[in-house]
Amino acid sequence: MKGRLRDIPWQSIRVRLVLGLLCITLPMIALLIYNNRYSVNVIHNQVANSNQNLVSVYMKQIDDQLSEAERHMMGLMLSEYNLLAMGEAGSSDDYVMAKSGVSRRLTSDLIVYPYMDGFFVYSIPRRDMVEASRSSLSYDALRQLRDAMEEAVLLLEKKPSPIGAEWTAVTINGEAHIVRLFSDGSITIGAWVKAKTMLEPLRNIHTGDSGATLIVDGAGKPLYSTRDLKEEGIDFARGFRQYYLSGKDDDYLVVGESSAKGDFSLAAVVPDKLILENLPYLARAAALLIAIAVAMLPISLWFLRKVLLLPLQKMTVAMRRIGEGNFNAGIEESSVQDEFQLVNRTFNQMIGQIAELKIHVYEEQLNKQRAELKHLQLQINPHFFMNSLNILYNLAQVKQYGLIQEMTLCLVQYFRYMLQSNRPLVLLRDELQHARNFLRIQELRFPDRLVCRIDVPAYLQDTPIPPLMLHTFVENTIKHAVRMDEPIEIVIEAALDELADEPMVILTIRDTGQGFSDEALENVRAGVQAVDDKGEHIGLWNVRERLRLQYGDRGWMDCYNDDPHGAVVEIGIPMNPEAGREGAQDNEAAADR
After folding, report:
1. Which CATH number fits domain 386-592: 1.20.1730.10, 3.20.20.70, 3.40.47.10, 3.30.565.10?
2. N or C: where does the chain have the smaller number of CB atoms within 10 Å of the terminal CB?
3. What local confidence, expressed as pLDDT, does residue 588 receive?
4. What would the DSSP string read from start to end of 482-511?
């Protein structure tokens, strides 16, 4: 078996197409099975939502009717004279007259509230009750009714809060009733409605011969049901926040709605076979589709060979020649599909453009070399070196040995830093120290003409920045702004931009010179080398390019003139340079390609 598997050419397109078709066919079969299950769920959802909406409407109607009955009973307790007289310790004749009046009033109220099965009033001082029932009751039934109501009243006296707060289920003569009581200490008025009566509206729900509608208490115990469901094993204690399947084999769909007026709920039980009675036709259609998919497999292989494999073979031959270095090779025109004709034409055009792309790559490499050369030119400034030696010579003539030592130390630190500036990033504190050394040398060169101030918080000095960035702007200031007729001040500041999307350090270099020319500002903001009457501003262009390569769009530079005069350069540098370094590496890799 293993030997046969090794003999199969797994790398061939034919085998892979067969595997590909199987990978398509088998998921399609699985999709059909899933679709069948999904259809069952959709049908369940639709039936459940339909019945749920109907049950919710009926439950709201019942709650509204119970609320009306509550308001009526509260009105009677507060305003009915005969009812109040039953609670007073008057004469027996007065009590009998009041009781008779209450009985007539309760009987007439049953006409106004047809959804209630009865009202009653219980006199607590006399332990006597008068009731009005919609249906005629036998003596035994009337006695059990009175006993149940009296028991509820006595329980309300002992525990008034939980008993009188809502409609409560009570069993009378083996039949479930929903009872509501109000009491003021001397008189208790109440109403009851049979659970069977409450289910009358739900008879419109189509549950089939084996389904049922029912009313259950808060513990999930059925109070009344249109069909006995004890043998079905349905669990009603799970609540009715959403529909669920229950029963011995989960063969019943259960929906319901809890009452807002009491600890009971309306529920509907629909047999699953009634819901899915049309689903077998869908299953037969799915089986037919599976058979068609299997039969179409060899036909698909023949068709794919004709329309796909042969054109691909021609493309493979042409690409193999290109890989061997023969850029004159192309794909011959033939009667193939429109898509392959487009691919063939595009492939032939691509071969013709390869030479042009090579030329562009060479030009990009030359531009990169020119930029590196300009950067090196900025680092090695022979004028600065000669001016520094001239300062040392003049100091030696006047025997200023302390200044000579200071000048020499500044030069040593300056050139040491310059020789180490090939690192991608340095700490801001090191760059500031380098700027101090350079500015101190210039202060010795231009005594009483140059004032320097550096204001950078200590917590920002560990920020990594590209090397020689501050040096570039300071050197530009010395070169273009320092004049012999008036002093100039150079200020270096740093602050944290708290409004940016990420932590950013804003470096500001300003001077009190004449500022940038309009032409220079326009060129800097356009991203080209700035040129004005003072010469090229290569340093500004260099810094902008280095920011772009190091940080991408996260770093930025802005130049403008201060009021009333002076040049200002602002640089935004992310405190976390990692993302920028990755972007720079990606750009360099793209340029190399």
Report:
1. 3.30.565.10
2. N
3. 43
4. --SSS-EEEEEEEEEETTSSS-EEEEEEEE
